[in-house]
Amino acid sequence: MKYVVVSGGVISGIGKGVIASSTGLLLKTLGARVTSIKIDPYMNIDAGTMAPTEHGEVFVLNDGGEVDLDLGNYERYLGITLGRDNNITTGKVYQHVIEKERRGDYLGKTVQIVPHLTNAIQDWIERVANLPADDSNEKPDVCVVELGGTLGDIESAPFVEALRQLRRRAGKDNFIQIHVSLVPLIHDELKTKPTQQAIRDARSAGMSPDLIACRCERKLDRATMEKIAMFCQVEPEQVIGVHNVASTYHVPLLLEQQGFLKVVSDLLKINHLEIPASLVTKGQTTWHQWQTLTTSQERVFDEVNIALVGKYVSLHDSYLSVIKSLEHSAMACRRKLNIIWVDSSSLEDSARETDPQAHYKAWHDVTTADGILVPGGFGTRGTEGMIKAAHWARTKSVPYLGICLGMQIAVIEYARNVCGVTGANSVELNESTSDPLIVYMPEIDKVNLGGTMRLGSRPTYFQENTEWSKLRSLYGSHRSSIDERHRHRYEVNPDYIERLQSAGLHFVGKDDKSERMEIIELPDHPWFVGVQYHPEYLSRVLAPSKPFLGFVASASGVFGQIQKLSQAHESDLANGVANIII
């Protein structure tokens, strides 16, 4: 097994995840099988109980793992399927070691950070790195490991020591480290001192970077690269400039243009691997599609304006996978995406008195948008504003997509304004509501919050006489069921289904027992769809999520073309969209 460790210095949040994902993508162009691991030094067992406004979105995997958002980047870029063990946290590792100690696995020894914790980290990495991550079911050749946080943080110390030891354990030509550092631009001059200090700190901790990825506002000039190389004891070709680009999808192209892949493959001796010719061809085809799709966006001028009506809009990373899914679909529809961020609280009547300027701006944004999207969320804040947005979309024939809470909101709005159930609400929003349209799922733990929701990949079955469904046509007319990832505690109350359906709200998809409502859709609307699952978790650059693709295509006025192309190229859709871009 070969390892690529990506660490960061100077500041956090400078793009380690994108660089790690881009590295994996480029290695796949050589035919190498790649998997990924993210190390998060926080004490939480997983990301499930974290506020999205603090840490960004919680990404959900097929096995129900609630993990860091960077694992979403890995899956989107590499086209792989990861599991909960691909995300290592301090809490997980300590829990693992303590459980072993309680069982007596250490035979009476004093359990210490070194060697017991560091050995456990190395064993965990080696075990997970060898798990298949793609459809081939073959063991990966390379594992990209991202160390979260900033090198030098006290909570990272055990992981840094474990990775230092892992270099020796992996052996020569099987381990490289990429250190991502900030090169700030001050008074129009690129400053290298922070990077020099970051590399000194890395070496003092026992880590020896093989490549330095320099994040900067503008293109790194040759003189600056040579200066960094000289003071950081690497060759100039081992200094890579990663300046700001139009989108993160351009980062792999930027790295490839600087000879990054050759340096990495030479250091890891990738050419010594026995790689089947079919994988090389597949990797090259994927790379060609990636280049075609990303560069074609530079020649696109038509915009599509999407109002994202949410409650966590103060931190856009709270909806990272939703943003990426919209981007994937906009690229497929040859549109420039313009996301209009709308705080749902500002749409409520109370905001007219407390903050009239924000209230009227929010309503202007909603009423002038090409499409309205209400994503998932928890709690009561802003939900009445979401209901008003759903009402506008339904009555004004504006394309609407509701995800998880957004679907529940659409059901409540329909019940109130079409079925005459004026007290319709969710027990999450009002425990004493007279008409509980949305209820707690009976099997859910109401006390322990971590990892107790309905999580992971679950099947949805299309119902009889739903061939008219626009969404179903995009998934493929031959398919009777789909698998999508879930994360929710509440569901549509079965007692109201017949009344809602008879009033025109169709439940197109249900679970395997026909007890849980998975998809709602209005037949006489350009696009009014709600899904209980989270389709954003499975969207890929070359294979956009179908609910998002239909939504963006409808908002762009090109749904008919996308629908025809998807029906004509159902097999192509399963592999990518490069051949059906309109």
From TrEMBL:
GO terms for MF: ATP binding; CTP synthase activity; identical protein binding
Membership in a protein family: Belongs to the CTP synthase family.
Protein's UniProt keywords contain Transmembrane: no
UniProt-listed Enzyme Commission number(s): 6.3.4.2
Domain Glutamine amidotransferase: 315-551
Protein name: CTP synthase
Organism: Aspergillus nanangensis
Recorded coiled-coil stretches: none
Swiss-Prot/TrEMBL GO biological process terms: 'de novo' CTP biosynthetic process; pyrimidine nucleobase biosynthetic process
Record keywords, A-Z: ATP-binding, Glutamine amidotransferase, Ligase, Nucleotide-binding, Pyrimidine biosynthesis
Top EC class of this enzyme: ligase
PROSITE patterns, sorted: GATASE_TYPE_1
Domain CTP synthase N-terminal as annotated: residue spans: 2-270
Pfam families: CTP_synth_N, GATase
InterPro entries xref list: Class_I_gatase-like (IPR029062), CTP_synthase (IPR004468), CTP_synthase_N (IPR017456), GATASE (IPR017926), GATase1_CTP_Synthase (IPR033828), P-loop_NTPase (IPR027417)
Record bears the keyword Transcription: no
Pathway: Pyrimidine metabolism; CTP biosynthesis via de novo pathway; CTP from UDP: step 2/2
Catalytic function, reaction form: UTP + L-glutamine + ATP + H2O = CTP + L-glutamate + ADP + phosphate + 2 H(+)
Role this protein plays: Catalyzes the ATP-dependent amination of UTP to CTP with either L-glutamine or ammonia as the source of nitrogen.
This protein's encoding gene: URA7
GO cellular component: cytoophidium; cytoplasm
